[in-house]
Amino acid sequence: MIRAILIALALAVASMQNALAQEVPSDAPRAETGGAQTLDDILRRQQGLEVDPTFRSEATGDPDSAAPPTAPLGTLGGQSDPELWRALRYGTANVSSQVRSPAATLLVQDEGMWWLQFREGPLRTWGGYFLLGVLGLLALFYLIRGRIRIDHGKSGVKITRFRAFERFSHWLLAGSFILLGVTGLISLFGRVGMIPWMGKEGYATLAIGSKWIHNNVSWAFMLALIFVFVLWVWHNLPDRTDLTWFAKGGGIFTKGHPPAKKFNAGQKLIFWSVIVLGASISVSGLSLLFPFDMPMFASTFHHINALGLPELVGREPLPEALTPHAEMQYAQLWHSIIAFVLMGIVFAHIYIGTLGMEGAYDAMGSGEVDLNWAKEHHSLWVEEEQAKQGAAPPTATPAE
Amino acid sequence: MKAMLAAFAMIFVIAVAADFGLEEADFSSQQVQSSPSVRLD
């Protein structure tokens, strides 16, 4: 009995080998494996080398010439499960759905793995190191330079630096940015940084709350960005005083302060960073808020390629035909990378506006700064303000 | 300080209004992505 079974099995294997040998010519690539991947393919993949995937992507079955389901080795629909999955993986399967999302018919996005690996690898790692590095540099700067004092001490006379609506707009932008930054970091680092110590249940609640805050507070950020731009753009246009300011390094390590108008060159850099990077974060954020409705990257890549920029740096042209998922993935990465850069800049801004410089916080706290502080850091602006008031001393409010 | 507190209050108001408004304007994921033949309720 056992001998009969063994003979039957041997015959079956021999007939299958014959069938495979008939299908794949002996001189065809991967003939030794019947068209499947070879040891060489596996070794190349392990070494990180390119492997031509066409032997897989094109092996998706041919229902027209396939054996009927009733025939030996016939499959239902003329495609085996592996062939169907390959078709799904390489985007050639004919999928229909009643869901209206453009991504609904893309069940397997093979090229999305690089995004996942980048998000979980370099983005988290280098983004985290960047923020810690900025904090470290600021701590080092504080240790070397200490707090920047008012050279002539407080005069006791105040001058109005920012009106109520200016301060309101600043805090609308600052408060929303801090909320967005914290909740964004929770979303990015939660899986590796928070679940281990607060558990999945706890983190799930936090993540849902973070998502709500991130999605809805974004509107306050965008509104404040417009307010701040309209309020201060005129004062942040570059002029000749900026060159002097840069030449003297802002007076940070030297005696005396370079003359400056309402905003010095350093503040102008902060302003334009916030406007340009904030606008970029807003646009990519809108693309993420309304998934698949605002694709940006295919057209952006087209313009970049048209300018020949990738060739200039010795790279292949950027992909111009992107799946809906890929659009979202590029938007997510861009959103995060630019947000990391802006967070680093804002760390420096918060430092110099609070701990780093005596008298600076008053500008956004009460809106009234000490006259000596104003003369030291914004001498040209003080002259303009005093000229407006007929050379009379500014608000003569004694310091408390 | 008043300007700061007013701004923080405004952030909260805008966030709640955005959440409510987008839901009412049929911008929820359910409204945007499902079709009449897909029942999610």
User: What top-tier CATH class of the largest domain in chain A fits best?
Assistant: Mainly Alpha
Rg result of chain A: 32 Å
CATH architecture of the largest domain in chain A: Up-down Bundle
User: What's the N-to-C terminus distance of chain B?
Assistant: 46 Å
**Approximate shape of chain A:** elongated
Q: Which structural category fits the helices and strands of chain B?
A: mainly alpha
Report on the biggest sheet of chain B: none
- Mean pLDDT over all positions of chain B: 87
**What is the mean pLDDT of chain A?**
88
- Could you tell me the number of beta strands of chain B? 0
Taken from the alpha-carbon principal axes, the silhouette of chain B is rod-shaped
- Give the structural class of chain A: mainly alpha
Please count the helical segments of chain B: 2
Binned, the helix content of chain B reads 55-70%
Percent range for β-strand residues of chain B? under 5%
The proportion of residues in beta strands of chain A is under 5%
Distance between the termini of chain A: 107 Å
Oligomeric state of shown chains: heterodimer
InterPro entries (chain A): Cyt_b561_bac/Ni-Hgenase, Di-haem_cyt_TM, FDH_cytochrome_b556_subunit, Formate_DH_gsu
Main location (chain A): membrane
Protein name (chain A): Formate dehydrogenase gamma subunit
Cofactor (chain A): heme
Verbal overview:
- The complex is a heterodimer of chains A (400) and B (41).
- Chain A is an all-alpha fold and 400 residues long.
- Chain A folds into 2 domains: 21-110, no CATH class; 114-162 and 233-388, Fumarate Reductase Cytochrome B subunit, CATH 1.20.950.
- Chain A is 60% helix and 2% strand.
- Chain A contains 15 helices and 2 strands.
- A two-stranded antiparallel sheet of chain A has the order 1-2.
- The longest helix of chain A is centred in the middle third of the chain and has 38 residues, at 195-232.
- By secondary structure, chain B is mainly alpha-helical.
- Chain B has a domain at 2-27.
- Chain B contains 2 helices and no strands.
- At the A-B interface, α6 and α7 of A face α1 of B.
